[in-house]
Amino acid sequence: MSTKGNRDFRPLIHFTPPSMWMNDPNGMVYINGVYHLFYQHYPYDTVWGPMYWGHAVSRDLLNWEHLPIALHPDELGDIFSGSCAYDRENTSGYGTTENPPIIAIYTNHDNNTGLEQQSIAYSTDGGKHFEKSYLNPVIPNPGVSDFRDPKVFWNPVKNCWSLVLAAYDRVQFYASKDMKCWEKTGEFGCSENLASGVFECPDLFCVHVDGKMLWVLLVSMTTTVEDGKSRTQYFVGEFDGETFVCTNPAEEPLWVDFGFDNYAGVTFQNYDEPLFIGWAQNWGYAAFVPTNEFCGQMTLGRKLALKRVGDNYRLCGKPEGIQEYRSNAYPIESGNRITTETFGLRIRGNGDARLYLKNALGQSLLLEIEDGSIAVDRSMAGKRDFHDQFMTQRYSRAETKRLVTGGYEIELIFDISVLEVFADGGLEMCTMLMYPDVPYDKVEWQGDLQVAFYKIG
Ligand code: FRU
After folding, report:
1. Which end of the chain has less neighbouring CB within 10 Å, N or C?
2. pTM
3. SS (H, E, C) the chain
């Protein structure tokens, strides 16, 4: 048991494991009003170790019920990231149409050899227990290192299941009628405008916009140190049923989030819109954060959409599950006290401005809007000497150019030790961790801002 830290930094509305280590969200699927969240879990320490799939369920994405561990390591290896499909038509034959099975598709990672291959397991009791298939691995390793993180989705072009997985420096697509027998259909990545790094946790989903259907490919990458060690890139384009083609070229890589703490995020299967959750952490310092008996939290659920910006489409997101709280927002003045550690701010403004969350020790978290850019600065926000990387200037301040000009609306959600920011209709999103030694109890700003406050939880 870790004894790090001097106060309880466990967020209230951001998912955390009951105890010990958590990384990527896995197997997210929505069934009969219930959100299932599985996650990379090491149940014996607060640092990464041999991976299991933890499991929790929720009806509102804010309150979660913990369930027993869903998948344990086996003779093919540890259970790395993957996804679940609700097999409504029982295409796999592992359930019935009256009682459709949930199929988990995950990576078996051999701890001795590093060999990675894809396996399946099925559940006929709503995800509580899984049986692994005797056919495993259903996608053997083709001779590639870093061959993992299958994300399954329904392929509307070919009327079959497809999956996208990471294969070192690219993603590969596979198709199947029954999720047991998979055939490779294409790949994407090697020659595109990519930040350098090993690909992880890809996702492909379609978005309806301006009367057409476009596809968004997410790819997480760990080694782009200059851009932030763990970040998720996205591409907008088309999917012909076999492979993805990027039709919205960008000069710079496009990031889902301009903060430093959103990684390995993917969307729910069997949900009618893209609903995303990411791991609100960064591989650079994840194992060192001062959170005592648990390590790792998820972002809030975010509905993703595309918006036209100039000639291109850009991703935007909106926090899900907080609408009721948000509708109770009331105006506040600069300098007002706050008495809760989990709250939202609706900010409207024009021109340069600075907004601070402050505590009695003089620590402060800064949101800054300046010259068409928006920044979150945590350099004075609280505890930071737990890791060198966290202390650097680079990792203290996250900044991005705004994609639109003029007046702005910003939604800020603060939850004990996690901040999420959604600016300009969610075109600029930011997730950042911070560890104030005592709670922030005051909001202060300079500039032409109108701010409304709402308590959450
Ligand atoms: C991403 C990742 C995945 C892998 C898992 C292991 O954070 O490295 O590629 O499946 O974590 O826990």
Report:
1. N
2. 0.97
3. CCCCCCCCCCCCCCCCCCCEEEEEEEEEEEECCEEEEEEEEECCCCCCCCCEEEEEEECCCCCCEEEEEEECCECCEEEEEEEEEECCCCCCCCCCCCCCCEEEEEEEECCCCCCEEEEEEEECCCCCCCEECCCCCCECCCCCCCEEEEEEEEECCCCEEEEEEEECCEEEEEEECCCCCCEEEEEECCCCCCCCCCEEEEEEEEEEECCEEEEEEEEEECCCHHHCCCEEEEEEEEECCCCEEECCCCCCCEECCCCCCCEEEEECECCCCCEEEEECCCCCCHHHCCCCCEECCECCCEEEEEEEECCEEEEEEEECCCHHHHCCCEEECCCCECCCCEEEEEEEEEEEEEEEEEECCCCEEEEEEECCEEEEECCCCCECCCCHHHHCCCCCEEEEECCCCCCEEEEEEEECCEEEEEECCCCEEEEEECECCCCEEEEEEEEEEEEEEEECC
